[in-house]
Structure formats: C-alpha cells, structure tokens
Design goal:
Two copies of one chain form a homodimer. With 229 residues, chain A is an alpha/beta fold. Helix content of chain A is 49%, strand content 17%. In chain A, the strands form two sheets. The first copy, chain A, has a seven-stranded mixed β-sheet with strand order 5-6-4-3-7-8-9, sandwiched between helices. Chain A has a two-stranded antiparallel ribbon with strand order 1-2. In chain A, α8 links the parallel β7 and β8. In chain A, α2 packs across α3. The radius of gyration of chain A is 23 Å and the shape is globular. At the A-B interface, α1, α2, α5 and α9 of A face α1, α2, α5 and α9 of B. The first copy, chain A, binds a DNA duplex (24 and 24 nucleotides) through α3.
Chain lengths: 229, 229
DNA sequence: TAGATTGTTAATCGATTAACAATC
DNA sequence: TAGATTGTTAATCGATTAACAATC
C-alpha cells in the first residue's frame, strides 16, 4: 500500500489538453479545418510557442501559413488521453456532490458513462437518478462482474472512503477518482486522482492576498510620490 | 479584458499547503508539538527534502533531531494563504453543484463563509439552504454594498457565466472561483480560479492509458520470454 | 516574391533532488 | 559521544521561452 502512484509524464501538457479539445471542437463545429498556434494561444491565455510544443508532443505537424489540421489534433488529443472509446464508471455516494456529478453533461460529452451508482441509504436506492440506477452497496461485486468498469468515482463521506477503496481494489478496480477529503492508500498498480476543492481555494486565496499586498505597496508608493511632488 | 492573470509564484508549493495544513491540524489535535520533515513527506507521498524546501519558503526553522514546531507551521501556512481571517463569499447558482458547495463543511472549516446565495429561479429563493439565505439575482448590488465580499463562487449555467462575471466585476469583486465550464474574460486586477473536472478526468484517463500500455508491453515481454524459454 | 507561420535548436527559468555540513 | 535531523549549497531535471531557419 503506497500513497503515491508513479509520476505522470508531461503533466502540464496533459492538464491543458481538455481546454484545447474544447476550443478545437468549437472550431470544428463552425466548419473550420485549420487553426494557428497563435489563435489557440490567445484563446488559452498562453503563448504560441507553448502551444506549438504541446502540439509537437501530440505528433501533429502543421503547414506554414496555414496552421494545424483541426480534426487530426482532436483525434490525437483523444488518443493521448485514451478518450477514443467511452469509459464506464461506477459512482459511490449519492449525496449532493454525487448528484452534481451524475448531472454533469460535460463529463458525459467527454465519454464518461456512469452506468451505476451506489449508496447504503435505503431511501436513496431507486431506479434512476439523472438516468443512472442507484443500487445498494452490497450489490457491488455482483455488478462489477457484469460491467467493464474503468474507474470508480468516490463521493462518500471521508470516513468511509478507505474501506470502500479497499473493497474496490479487491474487486480489481484500476482507477479511482476521489472526491472525498480522505487521503487513500492503494497498491502501486491502482491510480488515484484526488479532486480537492481546498487546493483551488488555496491558490485563489494566495493570489488575492498577494495582489492586495502589491496594491497597498503601490498605494504607499503613490502617497510618497504625492508627498514628494 | 485579459484572459490570463499574473502568474502565481511558487504554485506547486501553494498547492501542497492545504494538505500540509490538514496533517498538521490532525497532529496538533493529538497534542503533538513537533513534526519531522520525513513524517510529513511520508504522509504526503513526497520526499523529505521537498518538505524541507516548502518549509524554508514558509520561513519556519526547525531543530535537528526534534523537528519543526507544529503550531508555527500552521500559523505560517495560514498566513501564506491569507487564511488567518475568514473570507466572506457570495455563491451564484443554487443547482446541484451550488448545493454541494453550500453543504461542504471542509471549506467552512478553512474559513470560507458563504454569506448569501443567488439564483434567478423564483422557486429557489428561500430563507435558507444549508443555513445560507438565497436571494434573487436582482438584489446583488444592494447586498454587495452590505457585505465585505472577498470572492464570488460561480455555479450558474456556462452560458450565463460571462454576463454574471461582468456584473460582478462592475460591482468591484476581486476574486472569482469559477465552477462553470466557461472561459471567463476579466480585467487584469481580477483573479479567476477555474475549477474544471475535465482536467482531473484527463489526468486520470491519461495515466490509466499509460499504465495499461506498459502492462501489455510487459505481457508481450513475458510471452517472448516464455517463448524463448 | 514577400510574408506569415511552422519546426528546430538553444537558452532560461524554476522546481526537484542530491550531497553533505551543521547542530542538537 | 553518537546519531538523527535540519539547513545550505550545488546538481539535475523538466517546462517554458527565445531565436531563427525552413517552408508554404
């Protein structure tokens, strides 16, 4: 049971790919065939050379003065992410958070198919929440055998997360998308992706704090200038 | 209107701080006074020297053979993130996602106080959702004047996000936590933190794909060895 | 041809890791 | 004193950025 899985190569690029994909799909829908690195850069808020480097990684070559072929870019991004085929998933914990993930159309559009949800509250067992059947957690093994499940989405209370995780690992799950605040320990061959709102909150807080500090420094500077002037 | 705000310095460290904080608070609750870098490293799944570098950035010094003072670490992390005081926020869009954020106790514990929520559906206006009053969006300006709001949390449909964002900027908001899939354009002095589940999904997908590929390569290797043997 | 845009090679920058001296 | 752990300095690594040649 290790806490850390193998490091992902090219992580910054991978993190940008969904955004590229979204922009490219918009262009494709408008009937565009080619896109320049500078166009993508402007849309993404990054610089063009970085876009070209990302595209180089996707092994797509462009044409000077024309740009890069949009359909091929889309195909290569999907290939890079393993998104050519849709992925079947189970979701655990049909509370507020679980519900909001079941309702998320964006993830569906990216090929995530939540084929069943689980809860241990008998009141939540039902034939369908956002079109997904909800089962008692006791039926996990039975239903795992019936589906080819690529990942489990965890939205249960943090205190139940490790136990559930162990059960999932025992059932042979390879990917866990962890929306709980629990730090899960898993074997090396299981991949965990933790989704922690505290991180985004921390980054935003830190930037706001820095900005306010720099503004008040500037104000002091302004006052000084005013006094000097 | 620029899409990109100024780059955050020391972003990788900032992203680790909430996790440190959580571990340190657990230790403090158990009555511990000191912690070693190797203990923190093991809990976080990183190496000890990286922990020491992060702590160096927090300007906390330790004692050889004893470790680092836990209370001071906590204080310095909170200071670094601007978390000494709680932050008042408005939340926009009381759908599934908005509800799940209103229900999130972890964020409350980090000092985020959502003092009001807004929606344009009359059916959702109520005196309290998870203890937070829900107002019609028309009352935004009036209520902005009454509170010292540090950030806005956006959970509205993506197609309404830019309009709302413009209105918030006009009201003087400085920080926007964007849970919609919209790419928002704001002036340079407004900070946006986008929370995009597609990124986590992409990283997990990519790692699963890589792992499967390396495993099947290994199997081929095994077969070859078997054939050769 | 002229000019825009890609592709390549090198430089820079920042984060991580290593080595080891200092210190309790 | 011996040994564990911090603190410092340097090395490495990977991502970003710059410069410019190649190409349509």
């Amino acid at each position: 049971m290790k806490k850390q899985n193998i490091k992902m190569d090219k992580l910054p690029t991978v993190r940008r790919l969904p955004d590229y994909l979204f922009i490219l799909q918009e262009l494709a829908a408008k009937g565009e065939a080619y896109v320049s690195s500078s166009y993508l850069a402007e849309k993404m808020g990054i610089i063009a050379i970085l876009v070209r480097k990302d595209i180089e990684l996707l092994r797509v070559t462009g044409t000077p003065r024309v740009g890069y072929p949009i359909e091929l870019l889309i195909k290569r991004i999907e290939n890079f992410l393993g998104w050519e085929a849709s992925m079947d998933a189970f979701l655990f914990g049909v509370g507020q958070l679980g519900n909001s993930i079941l309702a998320n159309r964006d993830l569906m559009n990216l090929g995530l198919r939540i084929v069943a949800a689980f809860d241990n509250d008998p009141g939540k067992i039902s034939s369908s929440v956002h079109g997904v059947p909800v089962f008692d957690i006791s039926r996990l093994k039975e239903l795992m055998a019936k589906h080819d499940i690529g990942m489990a989405i965890l939205c249960v209370p943090a205190e139940n997360a490790q136990d559930l995780c162990d059960e999932l690992v025992a059932c042979g799950i390879r990917g866990i998308w962890n929306f709980t605040s629990a730090r899960l320990a898993v074997p090396e061959n299981v991949i965990i992706q933790k989704e922690d709102p505290a991180i985004g909150y921390a980054v935003l807080s830190a930037r706001l704090t820095r900005m306010q500090a720099s503004e008040s420094r500037q104000n002091i500077g302004d006052n000084k200038r005013a006094l000097n002037g």
